[in-house]
Description:
Layout: H1 20-26, E1 37-38, H2 46-49, E2 53-54, H3 67-91, H4 107-123
Parallel strand pairs: 1-2
Amino acid sequence: MHKATSEVICTNYTNGKQHDFKLFKNSNIHLKKETVALTDTGYLGLKKIHDNTVMPKKKSKKHPLTFADKKRNKELSSQRVLNEHVIGMIKRFKIVADKYRNRRKRFSLRFNLIAGICNFELVK
């Protein structure tokens, strides 16, 4: 997603259920070193691949979050909420929210058309 315009830039999908990070690794998308990746905790291994990754800090029983950690997590989530809104907009079309029951061959075309419709709505 483009940060300034909230437009969908790149889409990827797979058959069935697959973890987000595994889908990212299999997509062969390479991030530039200067690109900042704002992710959720589902992409825990991304820091090993891309140094410029920002993700929230997790708490554990023995190490609760400090006030500064909570504040940083909140700032990060306020930046990431734009991504979540775009994902929600795409899910309103039910192509990724429900089981896809049409021809698999046309899924890519339909998904990219829906992303284009969402981009058109965001530009208005």
